[in-house]
Amino acid sequence: MNEKVAILTSGGDAAGMNPAVKSAADYSRQKGMVPYVVEWGLRGLIEGWIKEATHERLDGMLYRGGTALGSSRSKRFYDYEFRKQAFENLQKLGISKLIIIGGDGSFKALNQFYVDFEVPFAGIPATIDNDISGTDYCLGVDTALNMIRSSVDSIRDTASSFSRAFVIETMGRDCGYLAMVSALANGAEVCLVPEIEYDLNAVGERLREQREAGKRYVLGIVAEGTGMAEPLTRWMGDVLKMDARLTVLGHVQRGGSPTVYDRIMAYKFAVAAVDHLLAGDTNRVVTFRNGRFGSSSIHQIADTKHECESSLLDLVRGLSC
Ligand code: F6P
Question: Does 172 contact ligand 1 (Cβ within 6 A)?
């Protein structure tokens, strides 16, 4: 009998989840497996919201943002009784393997599930925060960066029209990756992130010089993890004496149709995940490191702190002082 694999998305949604689901289903079918999808993430596993991944169900999914299957951050999955219920749901349908698309919390949950019931899984990293250790890329990041780019382009139009200072807050939890890449890609004058110590006195001196030399407006990009968006906006008004405004981009960064890069990366991550499962190389998270796909154990991922590449930090340092 053909092996059955169920695919689910879990945690914060990210563009690229949908193409990953579709590619994992299509490729596993190509490889002789029968693909299923789980709706509403870990909660769906507990509730038994598991359906065969028919073409009808997957059609039109690829270009959509978010996750068409739905996601959840289910606290109940920490409870053994609910995990047992989830295992029984899989058993009823004869599903023996799982592919989970999400963040490290989701991978840890499935690792515990494996410890309990020995259901092998492969993880695909997806979070706009790009903060999963062991991989240079997580699905959703490129789409988020492009959403930020288009917002900053619009803000620059109004900033330059009024000679104002604008502070833009990006998401990322404790990770400054989105802010750093956006600051460089959008020509911001200031960038504050948790990874870099900043010096507002030095920033003030630098900006005053630039203003005297004719700079009409100022853009500051701040990672939410610094908690500095409001203080920096006040500082721009009080110290720089500029008309200053704050834009918190918020969840607009998580939405939108996946970019070509996210779609193709989703395809490659999905193929690698299915290949890992078929090779019996299970309970691995697929990683993309230095341009190559590989995998890490959940322990390597969970026990190592994510570090942003040092060359990126070096480039941004000049915008923090
Ligand atoms: O982890 C993704 C993320 O979008 C973070 O960047 C942000 O801090 C958080 O999720 C927001 O969570 P919620 O959607 O629960 O408000």
Answer: yes
